[in-house]
DNA sequence: TCTTCAATAATCGCATACAATACTGTTCTT
DNA sequence: AAGAACAGTATTGTATGCGATTATTGAAGA
């Protein structure tokens, strides 16, 4: 991310749905590039949850001024990927367990909507695309790399795209990226979140046009993601929480 | 909005739910104030859909520099209240009919989630608060002022607050404000969107703990808002569209 | 009279400069 | 030696300036 200040191969736009990719909240290309860079860095955990984000050094790395960095921070903050505290600057967001539950609950509601919307409306091409994707997932699942996690996330994004509902897509993307953060904090080491078989079943229900079943499957699927991956609250956010046990074992008393 | 540059009586925070009102995407108080001012101006239609938003004059009016105005634009753009076109500046958003449908669809999904979440979990105090609110709505309904519209919007916000799910609340708020825009463009003159009786029924179902019925009611309620208010696409955005009929009646031929 | 083009004016994109605030290490007091 | 007050440093908040891009207007040519 150092020697390549500002390039991004048009990650948006080319959706297979009906819309013309109108860049609503785009800003200038450079601002967008900064935003993309930071967003990816956070999602890929190059920037770890809670990490400080100094405007100065980041701008320097990316070859832009603080102005653009701040702009990106603003957008990322709205999306819940960074926390912005007045006069204290920006940190990569560190969702609490409570927020994590909130995100998952909303995501369930959103994706249920996706399922209902798509049931019985999949074109042959879309159907094929989804199956191809699932096959990719299966391949990646065997090697159990980080690929697996990325792919199962993209499956859900693909579904949201196919609804042709731009807002729904945006919300699902947002929920999805926040889930990345959450799993980075609270998730088990390498549990590959989504069971591929559940994706298969879902496609089947969608193709059969069984909206109720598709919604129920999606619901159950995401529910099981929570219980499967989100059980061990390992990390602690606040310095105080981290140090509390050390203090205790050394006989120090927190104020 | 001219002689009062930057004051706002803390519109957020004091939710009756469980959270501590942590200001995640706050920014400095002044930036927040600019954001609030613009947001309110748009929702109350002091700034009409499609209207140009020059950084310079707005900053002047609000007593801040373009920097803060731009920051506010960024946030409002993410929320879909302004459109930000590179090198062309900002306009109040002018959702297309297609986008309007998208927003309503997502909103239905979100509020169904609210209903399910709340069913059987309302405290006595919350229940009373809702009923008091409905009574207010009834009072306002008789005079049929703009109060009526605001109140029926707030009913839905109140419900979302009561879930205690901060993200859900944010999304519902966002959807709700965009609905204001949409109704300003495509809505009938003074149809007071929500039928108060439907709000009553909904409260009843929530109190009874009938999640399915509550969800169905909410679904139907919002669906009927669409058909009730969103039938006549009156307004046209582009100057050309506005003038087309005039041209025609004068025998002029648009290119 | 309509089109094309150039000059001007207005506006935006972005960097930078300055002011305000928070942090850290030190010294002074008790 | 512990705590408080202070100063220096680092970082953020905001305004402003300059170059770049776009809209507008008026004039020349068809």
UniProtKB/TrEMBL annotation, chains A, B:
Keyword field: DNA-binding, Transcription, Transcription regulation
- Pfam families the UniProt entry points to: FCD, GntR
Source organism superkingdom: Bacteria
Annotated stretches, region: Disordered: 1-30
Ranges for domain HTH gntR-type: 28-95
SUPFAM superfamilies from the entry?
Answer: GntR ligand-binding domain-like, Winged helix' DNA-binding domain
Transmembrane listed as a keyword: no
| Name of the featured protein | GntR family transcriptional regulator
